[in-house]
Amino acid sequence: MDITLTSKAEAVIRRQVASGSYASADEAVEAAVMLLDESDRLQHLRALLQEAERETREGSVMEWTPQLRRQLRQEAELMARQGIAPDPDVCP
Prior knowledge:
Layout: H1 7-18, H2 25-58, H3 66-81
């Protein structure tokens, strides 16, 4: 993949490599892409938290009980036996 950077972005990368923070421009760009991905995941989690807060305010939440915990564990074990991958929001 070829990428064209702005002069400002290129200067930041050169400065980071020159300071020894990264061994190469490729490593610096890789770190930037990983931070972008992390930012996207955090934004998604924040949206989920807002939804949970709204549901709590509206009273549409389930009480965390030992019975509910057992039920969820049984469902997770069944899904694992069936080869169903866990929800990445639950098990990133």
